[in-house]
Amino acid sequence: MINSAKEQWFKYIEKRPVLAVTISAIWLGLLGWLGYLWNLGSIGLIDETEPLFAEASRQMHITGDWITPFFNRDTRFDKPALIYWCQAIAYKIVGVNEWGVRLPSAIAAIAVISLTFYTLYWHLKQQDYLEKNDRPIRRWLTSALAAAMIALCPEMIVWGRTGVSDMMLTGCTASALLCFFLGYAQPDKPAVQTRWFFAFYALIAGAILTKGPVGIVLPGLIIGAFLLYVGKFWQVVREMRLVVGILIILGLAAPWYLLVTQRNGWNYINAFFGYHNLERFTSVVNRHSAPWYFYFIVVLLGFAPYSVYLPVAMAKLKFWQRRYWSNQERSNQFGLFAWFWFAVIFVFFTISVTKLPSYVLPLMPAAGILVALLWSDLFQGEKGGKSLYWSGWVNVAFLSALGIAMFYLTQIMGPDPAAPDFRSALQQLGTPVVGGVLWLVCAVVVAILLLRHLRVWVMSVNLVGFAAFLIVVLMPTLFLMDQQRQLPLRQLAAIATEQRQPNEELVMIGFEKPSVAFYTQEYVNYLRFTQYGAEYIKQKTAPSVLILTQPKEFPKIGLQPQDYENLGEKGAYKLVRVRRS
Fold it and tell me: Which of 39, 143, 309, 419 has a beta carbon 3.0–4.6 Å from 485's, enabling a disulfide?
């Protein structure tokens, strides 16, 4: 049984709102700092996608054109404008640097984690009120656990620390869904309900401005399926004041779409709506194909190590008992809502032909909610049943597999032409061994807890293990990767900026690294195929040209050492000046 002194302590906190808010803020701040702000700007931009966003936002920042995104003098219609606006605003605050590029993603991640904490706490408090019970330990620990699992999982960490639009979409979509539920669950408070629904509409507009139609399609499918299941579709549609909501969404999202279409016409419509939306769903784009089970692996690893509990967490809800759920108070349906949230996104992108790991990022908050609700009964001293017990042993096996895989990581990794020495450097650094030992120790500790019937502490081991992995393994590895893969390009970009003569063109031959355009803050002529390089140099009429390529490409281009002036060689790259003579 839970010690009554602990119950009294949590009740003491709840009776003092300032203290409760302070403790919550400290917990969420610790998670946000460790997961998303610590060393956020200490690693250079990662090719190839992140610098595309960074440079397009820099162009907005310096030109004042907030309508049409540009990269390297070409329009960039891959994504709508919100991520560029946020990065450009961040540049104004913290400067044009890696912090400015990634800060919007980090803030979006911290915001959705915090709102999840609040919503889950509110749900459990309402549940206690309906059941005429008072379980403060359950409320606080379940909410804290959900926030921690969402904050400290690989998928959220990766995209929350990367300056691309995926975390912004997740922040808007997940926050919109949480706001919807907070409105849906309070029909007896029309004013409060309306405020939450209006927040929902504003966030949907943000999602549309982040990634287009998917920003309204996904929440629409989730909410529609959920409401049809519980038999409240038309009732809630009337409560939502849908006409007003549509006007809010159009008022916030439509102006930019109208302006960018007016300025760019069918070029924008075909590129964005045709190629980057319709074609991505119906056909393979940029060779991003994968088998039907792809997202099972992504969720297993992306929500690791807590993902092993998702099957039992979803089954425990008994979502097939429609009559039971339909008769529940709305505030008690949060678990079912999270189930639909997870399932709809998972199925939607499994059907999609183009597949990328980041596509299922918006379901990670739902995964955290589901597993936290599974764990909530343990915080009141309940045993959890055989399914949870055997899931614990799956947890042990999974942690053991992670540990063994870490020992063989350098053999598993494929070669990287951009960082040919990375594998040997990683082995010398020793982080794979440290990671392997760490996960095996966690597996042993979890096994001991299961044998001693202390299941309530199992998730703490997973969380502490991942936090330690982030600190002593992942972060040093990221620094090494940056040193091996991206630092040479930054160094050569600095040399190019310093050595560049008036009107001298910088040409990158054989590959395309957008980070060079960001760090030189100049136009870079990218010639992806080596054979084009030789032809281009012969046709060039300028007195000289700067060439950035890999040393192995020079014979293919037709350049001998006497044909160029060596300006610098870093890592896998070489920067030279070729004179017309």
Answer: 419
Between 38 and 287, residue with greater pLDDT: 38
Count up the domains in the chain and report the number: 3
* Residue located via tokens 């096996």: 397
Residue 283, pLDDT score:
53
**Residue 275, in any domain of the structure:** yes
pLDDT of residue 532 exceeding 50, the answer is yes
Helix, strand, or coil (residue 70): strand
Q: Among 477, 492, 520, identify where a domain stops.
A: 477
Can you tell me whether residue 351 is helix, strand or coil? helix
Measure the CA–CA gap between 545 and 335, rounded to whole angstroms. Answer: 62
Q: DSSP labels for 19-46? A: HHHHHHHHHHHHHHIIIIITTTTSSPPP
Q: Is residue 482 part of a domain?
A: no
Structural domain of 558? 500-579
Is residue 516 within 8 Å of residue 548, measured between CB atoms? yes
CA distance 51 to 428: 29
**Spatial contact of 85 and 147, defined as CB atoms under 8 Å apart:** no
423 and 347, same structural domain? no
Q: What is the pLDDT of residue 88?
A: 96
Counting beta carbons within 10 angstroms of the beta carbon of residue 288, is it exposed (0 to 12), middle (13 to 18) or buried (19 or more)?
Answer: middle
Is 103 found in the same domain as 201? yes
